[in-house]
Automatic annotation (TrEMBL):
Name the UniProt record assigns to this protein: DNA polymerase III subunit chi
Gene3D superfamilies (alphabetical): DNA polymerase III subunit chi (3.40.50.10110)
InterPro entries given in the database record: DNA_pol3_chi (IPR007459), PolIII_chi_sf (IPR036768)
Organism annotation: Pseudomonas neustonica
Pfam families recorded: DNA_pol3_chi
Length: 143
């Protein structure tokens, strides 16, 4: 059964959510995991793909956009097909991905902004009602 972690950031900035997604993906990759970053649409996936190149000067994170990857451990995408990925799903869309249960882990990153927080609460209820193991982590962002 998929383990689901909610990361609750003490920031209302949407950019903080993306930065944290990059940090989480980098940390998972360093531990040998494959990561699929599920975005709302193609424009968001492309924005995140660009951010992964520059989110940390000293860090390299091999990644690609869905459809362009050749065995890349980190992939940004949208839509209903995450390809061969099944390890860690980082959901950055407003909806529950229909394929989430094929992943070992799911990370939901939430900022203090109603446009993000309200749909995240609905997804939390959805997962809880279906018996998925849920963890919540309060993350303090400096600055």
């Amino acid at each position: 059964m998929t383990r689901i972690d909610f990361y609750l950031l003490n920031s209302a900035q949407p950019a903080t959510r993306l930065q944290y997604a990059c940090r989480l993906a980098h940390k998972a990759w360093q531990k040998g995991h494959h990561v699929y970053l599920h975005c709302q649409d193609e424009a968001a996936a492309e924005q995140l793909d660009q951010l992964l190149w520059s989110f940390r000067e000293e860090a390299f994170l091999p990644h690609a956009l869905r459809g362009e990857e050749v065995d890349e451990p980190v992939v940004c995408g949208c839509g209903d097909d995450p390809g061969e990925h099944h390890d860690l799903l980082i959901n950055l869309s407003d909806l529950t991905p229909g394929f989430f249960s094929r992943f070992a882990r799911l990370a939901e990153i939430v900022v203090e902004q109603d446009v993000v927080r309200v749909p995240a609460r609905e997804r939390f209820r959805f997962y809880r009602e279906r018996g998925y193991p849920l963890q919540s982590h309060q993350i303090r962002i400096a600055g």
